[in-house]
Amino acid sequence: MTGTTRDMADSVVEGLLESCVAVEVKEAIDTSASDLDVYDNFVFGLYTWGDGDLPDEFLDLYDEMRDMDLSGKRAAVFGCGDSSYRYFAVAGDMLSKRLENRGAAVMQRTVKADRCPGIEDFDACRKLGIEFADFIKRQLN
């Protein structure tokens, strides 16, 4: 809606590229569960809407994941929220749990930005990309 998650994603991509990981960026609204079959590694970025809800743009993909086998896939999640709400940035937690329940290896480190991310948040996202590249390599060995 505001471009915040997209800006955070750009920083994650920067970290992945620094680690020589090829990247393809897709919008959740334009992605279906069948698209996930093509990839072994995913980094999902999403914001938390209101008091702990997934964004509308992510609902279809999230629902389609319910019956998927994601064994052998690796994932990381980041996002943003508003700490003035009762549940801060929990959409990413919900997605991480769904991915784990479907068999994916999910990197436990994440980045949660409060409202508009600052320089520290963007740096943390870049580092998340670097750490996810390492996570992929460790999982392959």
Automatic annotation (TrEMBL):
The keyword Coiled coil does not apply. Residues 1-133 form the Flavodoxin-like domain. One of its GO terms (molecular function) is FMN binding. SUPFAM superfamilies: Flavoproteins. Its cofactor is FMN. Keywords: Electron transport, Flavoprotein, FMN, Transport. Low-potential electron donor to a number of redox enzymes. Belongs to the flavodoxin family. This is Flavodoxin.
